[in-house]
Amino acid sequence: MIRARAVVFDLDGTLVDSAPAIRDVAGQFLAELGADALTLDETHGFIGRGAAAFVDQALAARGLAPGAAERARLQARFETLYAQAPGAANRPYPGVEAALQALGDAGIPLGLCTNKPEAPTRAVLAALGWSARFAALVAGDSLARRKPDPAPLLHALEQLAVPVEDALYVGDSETDAETARAAGCRFVLWPYGYRKALPEAMGALLVLERFEDLTEAVLPQRGLAR
User: Fold this and answer.
1) Are strands 91-92 and 110-113 parallel, antiparallel or unpaired?
2) What DSSP state is assigned to residue 12?
3) For strand 6-9 and strand 110-113, is the pairing parallel, antiparallel, or unpaired?
4) Are 22 and 140 in contact (CB under 8 A)?
5) Which of 8, 52, 5 is nearest to 169 (CA)?
6) What burial letters (b/e) apply to 189-203, b meaning 16+ CB within 10 Å?
7) CB burial class (10 A; 0-12, 13-18, 19+) of residue 224?
8) Contact 16, 124 (CB under 8 A)
9) Would you please indicate which residues are annotated as catalytic (active-site) residues?
């Protein structure tokens, strides 16, 4: 058993496969500029460092280099489209719903720490019926700093009133692994999201083959403490 008084999750690539939905938003954004849509592989590669980094990479991939004022306008436009996108287009990975339910039923507080802006994050949670699932939510625009800076994860744990050493952070990418490491938090890897490194190179306490592995490791009726 892994002792955990709280579990904090990343969102995109961890709880939901958001790449198709984000690709659709980016396609609309780029079409307005007369540029071709992103491929799904490109979209996967650009997710993880927040909306501004995503826009930078999408523009660069299509050979677009706007000046500062135009770049700011384009960022605002992308975020408007992103906030308006239907949250239901984001599909939970298999076993996620049951895992969230089981952890909540066991009295383990849950948090969300994502680089996705707050408006589309809340749209996804509402569409999936998860608005009340998380006692803490820190999005990409909640603080001045984003992951992999540890501040968002530490802020989520402050909201949960749980010390970092008593929590787990579940994520799918190098950004999440770096965030957990910088915060001094134990990291659990969902390897089927948007990572580029090999799972064994990411310093995870546990690599999930299925989301049931998380509940089996954390809930107190099974295993030995570690």
Assistant:
1) unpaired
2) B
3) parallel
4) no
5) 8
6) bbbbbbbeeeeeebe
7) exposed
8) yes
9) 10
- Copy the structure tokens of residue 162: 């749980």
The residue to which tokens 């049931």 are assigned? 212
Distance CA 112, CA 151 (A): 13
Distance of CA 162 to the CA centre of its chain: 20
* Chain centre to alpha carbon of residue 21: 14
Rounded Cα distance between 146 and 148, Å, is 6
Beta bridge partners of 207: 189
In 10 A of CB 223, how many CB atoms?
12
Coil, strand or helix: which one is 43? helix
- The reply to whether omega before 66 is within 30° of 0 (cis) is no
SS3 145: coil
Report d(CA 199, CA 217) in Å as an integer: 18
Report the distance separating Cα 10 and Cα 41, nearest Å: 20
Token duo for residue 63: 């050979």
Give the model confidence (pLDDT) of 62-88 as tens digits.
999 999 999 999 999 999 998 888 888
Compute the distance between CA of residue 80 and CA of residue 82 in angstroms, rounded to an integer: 5
* pLDDT, tens only, 128-187: 999 999 999 999 999 999 999 999 999 999 999 999 999 999 999 999 999 999 999 999
Does the predicted model carry a pTM greater than 0.85? yes
